[in-house]
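ok so i was messing around last nite and threw this chain in just to see what happens. nothing serious, just curious
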Amino acid sequence: MGELISFLIDMDSDRAAELLLEACLYKGIDYLCEIARTKCMKHPVLFKYACQELLNQNKDAECEKLGLEAIEVLPEDLVVRGKIADLTAKAAINLNHHGIVNRCYEVAFYSESTLNNYFRLFQIPNHEIITKKAAEHVEKLAESGTYKSNDINKQMRINALSRN
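result:
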């Protein structure tokens, strides 16, 4: 299993990340979290997988901690960072950590500027200022057109406006 993990760690593809997930989970969730931390620039989606697994195991505090760690180290415009923020918000909701939920909603919008993520900003106290700043941010985003559905490394996708 160690050889397989070593081989997959250096591959750039979503499929390699999925296989790496399976191999890491064979060794346990703690091992998956460790690999997510050490290989986050190559496989940022491992943070998402680890957070999802922690949520599935009702380990909300660990999910929240790992998600916040991922938010700090991953580039702001990485779409998967927004997905991690969503999972972290779910854990924070379960823990009644409203400040973290609000922060995660903002992170999710800036990493994945979708209409749903924008609407969630209205749940945050002082949303007038936050939504105005968010609208200004959207105006600066490039329109997507480089992302193709057959890309093999979608985990490295950058935030952009959809043509719709």
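not much to say yet. The radius of gyration is 16 Å.
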